[in-house]
């Protein structure tokens, strides 16, 4: 059972990672980066690392995409 959960989590990480790389629009790429971080959070939970999962959830899913979107907004306005 644990192996199946890990394989599914790894598949989600691989697919979402490819989606981040394949997305051409920076705004959409920030959103897919957030989804990638959520998939990494699920992987860390499956690997029984709840402290790393909470850090990834807070930083990777919320702060980094927000900073990317704010930077795009600031730079793209010129």
TrEMBL record:
MrpA C-terminal/MbhD domain segment(s): 12-75
One GO CC term, this protein: plasma membrane
Compartment annotation: Cell membrane
Keyword Lipid metabolism carried by entry: no
Membrane topology according to the record: Multi-pass membrane protein
Annotated transmembrane regions: 29-47, 54-72
Keyword Transmembrane helix listed: yes
Predominant localisation class: membrane
Record's keyword terms, sorted: Cell membrane, Membrane, Transmembrane, Transmembrane helix
Protein name: Uncharacterized MnhB-related membrane protein
Native source species: Amycolatopsis pretoriensis
């Amino acid at each position: 059972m644990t192996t199946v959960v890990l394989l599914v989590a790894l598949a989600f990480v691989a697919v979402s990672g490819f989606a981040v790389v394949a997305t051409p629009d920076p705004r959409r790429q920030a959103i897919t980066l957030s989804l990638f971080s959520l998939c990494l959070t699920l992987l860390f939970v499956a690997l029984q690392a709840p402290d790393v999962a909470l850090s990834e959830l807070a930083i990777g899913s919320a702060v980094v995409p927000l900073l990317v979107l704010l930077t795009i907004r600031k730079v793209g306005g010129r």
